Amino acid sequence: MTTSSTHAPAPAAGRTTRHFPLEGDVRAVLLAVAEHQGLDHAPDGVADLLRRPGFDHGRLIEHALRHKLGAALSDYVHRHGLRRSFPVQLRVPLLSFLQSARHREAVLTAEAARVSQAVAAAGIDAAWTKGVVARDRLYDGRAVRQFNDIDLMIRPEDRGRLSAALLDAGYAAERVWDSVSGRLLPRSRAELRIYQLSPDHLPHFHRIGPDPVVPVFVLDVANSLTWHGAEWQVPMDEVLAGRRSLTVGGVSLPALSSAHSFLFVCLHLFREGWVDRFARLKGANLSQVAEVLREWRRLDADERASVLDAVAAYGLARPVAWACGHTDRVFATSLTEELGVEEEATAEWLGGSVDGLLG
């Protein structure tokens, strides 16, 4: 990985593995859960592995949590009658992942609808992205995708008006939530300076939440599909001109077009896995890679054609090849070939596993 936008990613020197490697039967189960989420795949092989003597169910849960697949694993196990394959001590905690995800999703979706009204009243074009609009479109209405905040996309020139609208809607700016005191505290000057130097996002907005499961609402506002200074950019006027209305949990939310949503998922994975300063802060996880695959599989022929046109028009072959190349590596798929970017997905460009993604 590198901070340069013109060279292949270099190994991150001095970094050490922060967790046990994902391998063997645990890897096979988690890959199946990540790829299919239990929605479009019979669990026969997975069931055999989970019931095998000596299978490490605790290690599976650990990796599921690290890769933001706790709710997906819980849903997979419970819906397919595999709960009793887990040790008794792990069954209730496993179910709690799904119950918490269902509650959080309902509360955060309602909050997104409330914020949408305030944003629309201010005359601002915006679109929700990622988790809050993914449930019905990608996951058949099931609460299997973990998300901790709600993500909004706007034009750069609307940053000031959007900030004012959110303050009027009860949000606090330039604050962080302290989980010990339960209070919103001032964000450090150093953090605010980073946002000033990289104006592709606004500092997260916060509002105290309604209950212990959702103690705070966190609103992440972006005005770029990539990052400030990146050589790869997509005009936000075109992105927002193509937005559509999606019904999510019984409410209507503005969202990106299917083609722009796929590109955003690819570019977001590229940003967090390739750019060193982002990778060192968060890094990529298996659920992000799986969502690239799930987005692509849900596109129809016309939507795929729109993606190909956009990749060519905006010069996105290299970042899309990076994201889809790693997806192909993990899931043995052929996205780079289907997208016509396989020549860009060289071993040098892809580098190693994304931050030790599979250990």
Q: Note the gap between the termini.
A: 17 Å
Largest sheet: 4 strands, mixed
Strand line-up across the major sheet: 1-2-6-5
Helicity range of the residues?
A: 40-55%
Helix-strand string = HHHHHEHEHEEHEEHEEHHHHHHH
CA gyration radius, whole angstroms: 20 Å
- Specify the structural class: alpha+beta
Compute the average pLDDT.
89
Number of strands: 8
The geometry reads as: globular
Number of helices: 16
Beta-strand content: 5-15%
- Low-confidence stretches are 1-19
Throw out a few tags for this protein.
359 residues; alpha+beta; two-stranded antiparallel sheet; 8 strands; disordered N terminus
List the helices and strands and how they pair.
Blueprint: H1 24-36, H2 44-50, H3 57-66, H4 70-79, H5 88-121, E1 127-129, H6 131-139, E2 150-153, H7 159-168, E3 175-178, E4 183-186, H8 189-197, E5 205-208, E6 216-222, H9 236-241, E7 244-248, E8 251-255, H10 258-274, H11 276-281, H12 286-298, H13 301-314, H14 317-331, H15 335-339, H16 347-350
Parallel strand pairs: 2-6
Antiparallel strand pairs: 1-2, 3-4, 5-6, 7-8
Helix pairs in contact: 1-3, 1-12, 3-4, 4-5, 10-12, 10-13, 10-14, 12-14
